[in-house]
Every structure is written in structure tokens, then in C-alpha cells.
Design brief:
The chain is an all-alpha fold. The chain has four domains: 58 residues; 62 residues, no CATH class; 43 residues, no CATH class; 41 residues. It has nine helices and no strands. The radius of gyration is 51 Å and the shape is rod-shaped. 0% of the residues are buried.
Length: 227
């Protein structure tokens, strides 16, 4: 008989535990029901506003869109949800990169503006405009045949210019021009006696000999055009 109270007490304890468990489950169910009710209460006004708006928008495109197309598009979006998520991650990464590079691009832009302003101050753009005017004059002055002949003789022209721009040639031409400019300022004695007197100067005779030699070479070139 002494075991009956112990067994009864154990059953009561087990029953108490089950009642407490059921009570907790009931409280959780009630809490979830309240949360759902609050969600429905919050969403209902939004849904009431969104539904007529959706109907209105769908009415505008109903002749262009079929329900089957919408369902197919929805299925495709669901199938590519991971791809869309990766794409959004990439967009976020690009946005972060743009935020990082923003100050650098601003500095580069400011430096570019400063460099362009300095070039304008030094006259680069004015020179370019003048060069464009010269190029336009050259283009309008040469015919197609002139350009073709220029192309046929471009190597000869370049070689001639290269020879003419040698330091020795340029120095000789510059010195000659400077001396001629000085001599033009002096009075000239063109009388016969004056010319004979100048012929007595060795420098005059040397210049005359060089001039005659150059004239001889020019005459030889004129006599033999094939050279």
C-alpha cells in the first residue's frame, strides 16, 4: 500500500509536465496567431491600395501581355533567383568600387583640367588651330594628281630636306644671310673701277669661283635631265 502514493505522485508530476508543455504550445500558437493577425492588419491597407493600382496598370497593357507570358516570366525569375542574387552582389561590388574610385577620378579630372589650362596658356591649342588652317590650305591647294606625284617623289623630297637641314648647311645659310644683311646696309660701288678693286680681294675671288662652280653644276644638270 505504501507504493500507491509514490506512483500516484509520479503520475501527477508527469501530468503537470504535460500540462505545462501544452500550455506553452498554446501560448506560442496564440502568439503566432496574433502576429499573423497583426501582419494581415498591416498588409490589408497596402493590398487594398495596390490591388486597384495593379488592375489599372494591367488594363493598360492587357492587349500586349498574356497571363501565360506573365506566368512564364515568373517561373523564369524563380529559376534564376540565384543568378539574380549574384548579379545584385556584383552590382553592389561595382557600387562599392565606384565609391572607392570616386575621389581618385575627381583628382584625375582636376589634374586633367589643370593640364589643359596650362596647354592653353602656353599656346598649344592656338598652334593646333593654326596648324589646322595650314593643313586646310594645303588640302585645298593640291589636286589629286599633285598628291599622287608628291607620293611618287616623297622619298626624294625627304632626302633633300634631310640634306638641307644638316648642321653645316644650316650654319652656312644662316651666316650667309646675316652677312648679306649687314652688307646690304653698306653703300655699293658699282663702277668699273670699284668692281675691279673688289676683284683684288681674295675673298671676292673665292666667292666668285664657288659661284661659278655651282653654276657649272646647275648647267650640267640642265644639260642632262636624266641625272
Amino acid at each position: 500500500m505504501s507504493d500507491v502514493p509514490i506512483e500516484l505522485s509520479a503520475k501527477i508530476d508527469a501530468l503537470t509536465v504535460q500540462v505545462a508543455y501544452l500550455s506553452e504550445q498554446a501560448r506560442q500558437a496564440e502568439r503566432q496567431r496574433q502576429e499573423r493577425a497583426e501582419l494581415v492588419r498591416d498588409v490589408t491597407p497596402i493590398a487594398n491600395q495596390a490591388f486597384p493600382l495593379a488592375i489599372e496598370q494591367l488594363e493598360e497593357v492587357q492587349e500586349y501581355v498574356d497571363l501565360a507570358d506573365l506566368l512564364r516570366l515568373l517561373k523564369r525569375l524563380l529559376r534564376n533567383a540565384r543568378n539574380l542574387e549574384r548579379m545584385l552582389d556584383q552590382l553592389e561590388a561595382v557600387s562599392d568600387l565606384a565609391d572607392t574610385l570616386g575621389p581618385l577620378t575627381d583628382q584625375a579630372f582636376e589634374k586633367s583640367v589643370d593640364a589643359l589650362a596650362e596647354m592653353e596658356r602656353k599656346g598649344y591649342f592656338a598652334f593646333a588651330r593654326g596648324g589646322a588652317h595650314i593643313l586646310d590650305a594645303l588640302v585645298t591647294s593640291f589636286s589629286e594628281d599633285d598628291v599622287r606625284r608628291l607620293g611618287d617623289n616623297i622619298v626624294l623630297i625627304v632626302n633633300t630636306v634631310k640634306d638641307m637641314t644638316q648642321p653645316e648647311i644650316m650654319g652656312f645659310v644662316r651666316n650667309t644671310l646675316m652677312l648679306a644683311e649687314k652688307e646690304l646696309e653698306q653703300p655699293l660701288d658699282i663702277s668699273t673701277l670699284g668692281l675691279v678693286r673688289q676683284m683684288g680681294d681674295p675673298r671676292v675671288r673665292r666667292g666668285l669661283a664657288l659661284t661659278l662652280r655651282v653654276l657649272q653644276a646647275i648647267g650640267a644638270q640642265a644639260a642632262d635631265p636624266s641625272r
